[in-house]
Amino acid sequence: MSIALAPGLGLLALAIWLYLLLARGGFWLARGRDNRDVPPDPARWPSVVAVVPARNEADVIARSIGSLLRQDYPGEFRVVLVDDGSDDGTAEAARHAARGAGTRLEILPGMPLPPGWTGKLWAVNQGVRHATATTPPDHILLTDADIGHAPDNLRALVARSEQGRHALVSLMAELSCANAAERFLIPAFVFFFQMLYPFAWVANPQRRMAAGAGGCMLVRREALEAAGGIAAIRAAIIDDCALARRLKMQGPIWLGLTRRARSLRPYGSAGEIGRMVSRSAYAQLGYSPLLLAGTLAGMVLTYLVPLALALFGTGLAQVAGLAAWLLMALSFQPMLRFYRVSPLWGFALPAIGAAYTAFTLQSALQVWRGRGGMWKGRAQAMAGGG
């Protein structure tokens, strides 16, 4: 780094963090949570069908399906599991978990994947079509096979949707954060997501910004149909946000943090988390080499330059770098509290940012090698428009 450029870079990095804290929708405060401003029960509880796509999920499917079947929901509710070519006994594990639940669970064998579809969305589409074929429900709960739901989750989701006539109510499921790799990378994953999509802006009908979290999305059926159904996003890698954009054109949407929906699958290593991030990072950039270069440069300026200047700079450059680093650490504190990890991790955000920079570059390399968007053994990136 040129000594002459150091003060300017330090002031630019500081300006970036001042903007993020003061003018980016308060994303860092982590205020958008489903346990705040709790809506009242609706006058009538609408009907709901949960659609669960599953491909080789035998290790978690019993807990996931079991949590859905135990929902304390006063209205009509059933579950459709789409077994997407599993060869590990996923369907059998789900049937075992549903013993005593009567006909509330239906298991639908998935059809072969047609061209132009991602595997997950093809499975979801089959489930939605099956769920709406006879008596169409008022709402459809789109949830992943590795998500566990608290008994009151559906009730809370529907109450919020009915109160605001939302086209979409989505929850960012609480991810596993138990081992060192998870503590290092998982809170930052949600922090960066909120930075990209401030939840307050997502909920604001005056803003075009839209986002959803695919692990838990309650969709109003009429809004989904008006948006073109799942087929409208058939090739999207970041399918939750693609669907949210279409649904926001049909009505208000809401996205928040929760402890009512939790991921059942831990990440055993930083490499596993990296693969999860790199699956969609380059798709987020529209597969653009120019945007990739700009993003990598921006990550270096935002996360690494402040640390370098704080440790090795002098004068104004060092002061600006240190101030940016402190603001960085401060902004991370609410998310660290949500995930119950030490506030000292805030000072590690430059290193965490460097890791995510590497994951982003890895994502582009995978696409260029024809291995992008890997999900359950399928390379799906660049399958078509999103």
Annotation keywords:
single chain; 386 residues; alpha/beta; Spore Coat Polysaccharide Biosynthesis Protein SpsA, Chain A; eight-stranded mixed β-sheet; 46% helix
The residue ranges in which pLDDT falls below 50 over 5 or more consecutive positions are none
CATH superfamily of the largest domain: Spore Coat Polysaccharide Biosynthesis Protein SpsA, Chain A
What does the radius of gyration come to?
22 Å
Give the proportion of residues in helices.
Answer: 40-55%
Largest sheet strand order? 3-2-1-4-7-6-8-5
Question: What form results from the Cα inertia axes?
Answer: globular
- CATH architecture classification of the largest domain: Alpha-Beta Complex
Class by SSE composition: alpha/beta
**Count of discrete domains:** 2
Distance between the termini: 39 Å
Order of helices and strands: HEHEHEHEEHEHHEHHEHHHHH
Estimate the strand proportion.
5-15%
CATH class of the largest domain: Alpha Beta
Describe the main β-sheet briefly. 8 strands, mixed
